[in-house]
Amino acid sequence: MSETIKCPACKSEFTNVDGEKMICYECFHEWQQEAEEPIETLSEKVFDANGNELLNGDSVVVLKDLPVKGSPKPVKAGTKVKNIRLNIDSDHNIDCKIEGFGSMALKSEFVRKA
Asked: Domains in the chain, please, with CATH?
């Protein structure tokens, strides 16, 4: 292979073929070899209540009291949540751990970027 195929997500040259897919060793993005355009679209991005884009590892602040199923107390407004993970496939698109509650999923419309 004389020409290096660049990653469509991060434009890295460190890519390799794995079966029918291509894999980037810098950002671990996977794509079909024929696809040359980035798969990421606006619908795959997650925004907070103020319209700021959220990324994995960000910290957010809860904007209003959120009831928790199975718990007598809600997550209070102003609670800071660190190191979030985005889950684009679900309606509750933020996975996180909140002290006193454990692992849970939040909707991005009820948080703002810290």
From this structure: 1-40 (2.20.25.10), 42-113 (2.30.30.40)
- The torsion angles phi and psi of 66, rounded to 5 degrees, stand at -115, 120
Global pTM value: 0.62
Q: What is the 3-state secondary structure (H, E, C) of 76-99?
A: CCCCEECCCEECCCCCCCEEEEEC
Among 1, 24, 7, 105, which residue's Cα sits nearest to residue 62?
Answer: 105
Tell the burial category of 112 from Cβ atoms under 10 Å away from its Cβ (0-12, 13-18, 19+): middle
Q: Taking 50 as the threshold, does the pLDDT of residue 111 lie above it? A: yes
> What are the pLDDT digits (tens) for 72-102?
999 999 999 999 999 888 889 999 999 989 9
- Closest to 9 (Cα-Cα) out of 83, 19, 54, 26: 26
Mean pLDDT of the chain: 86
